[in-house]
Amino acid sequence: MSPRPFTILFIIAALAGAWFTGFATADFASHLDRQVHDIHCAWAPGLVDDDASASSGCKVTMMSPYSSVLRTLVWGGIPIALPGLATFAFLVFRGLDLFLNRREGDRGAARFLVVASLVPVLTSAVMGYLSIVELGTTCKLCVGTYVSSAACLAFALGAWRSSMAPTMAEDIAIGAGAEPEASGGGFGGLFVGFATLGGFVAVPSLVYLILAPDFSNFIGACGSLPAPEDKFGVMIALDENSGVPNAIEVFDPLCPSCKAFEERLEASGLDSQLHRSAVLFPLDQTCNWNVGETLHPGACTISEAILCAEGNADAVIAWAFVNQEAIMAATKADPTAAAAMVSAQFPQVAACLGTPATKIKLTRSLKWAVANHLPVLTPQLYVEGVKLCDEDTDLGMDWALSRLIANPKAKAEATP
User: How far apart, in whole angstroms, are the C-alpha atoms of residue 391 and residue 252?
Assistant: First the structure.
């Protein structure tokens, strides 16, 4: 079979990969204004409306530590989708070169298509593993990219195998003792090809770095704590780090955003550069008079359990993060479910839950939040009393927090 049909299919698959990675790049770049934006997550983005469940998977993937690189160098980092887009653009370029110049029979060039197609395939394998195993979800844009990568490799293999079939002229030459020719092969051809691919990837990445906005003026400018002292001992120590800036993390144990923030913080390694204490602020009307409606049923009970656990508080927090959905669903059906679930997992807290002393301690935690004029929002992080901007708790966390850790007081002291 002629390699020409395989070349055409290869070009189409590479265009599909560019389509998916292009939308993923655009979604990421739209967040560079530090605001919330819709995320394209349909099988045909731009043509088919997204649904909420699909977009949630794409949001988790985008906000994860794996969606970009060089996060401390530029706000949000360089999205992985951008070099992916450049790689597929390169594959389209190579495919069109063979097709338009009728070089499908060039065995060296066809072989390079196979080798070059391994780049997005191997990247897709790694990202797919991280998405499924580490994040427990995926997105349609990602799956579309994975399928496009596999299709590129399959059609490149088809074109290469077809180019290996001798033509009639080669049959005659081979019969005369000659070897079939394969131009563009060898290490020289591979070097030139991958150097070109490197240029395709490097140029847009460099342009992205140059054009990325600088948000330095926001570091330390989002407020500070007027009364950070822990007069009533309501703070929970989250680590034993010493010789590093002190930080206070305000969170709700059943808040999905708090869980995601904790995962990003741990993945960044910046948690080791802070000595963190937690102030519990459950978004549950059962105990929190600041909340207009209960957002996280059972959060008050789990917060009490954390206070009761004392030295084992980190284990209760970790368990609550893992079981957030189950706890909230059970508490909606039965208000006593959260107490039963946490007591079954941590029997030592059972006798402490709901006691006057525990309720008073949780109330004092909420009063600490009121005394510091905190918004009804979780998570919040304060480094040496200076707030990490809410807009910097997701994509921009590595960039903004690393700078706040380096000089937490600079902006606060400069502000009259």
Answer: 18
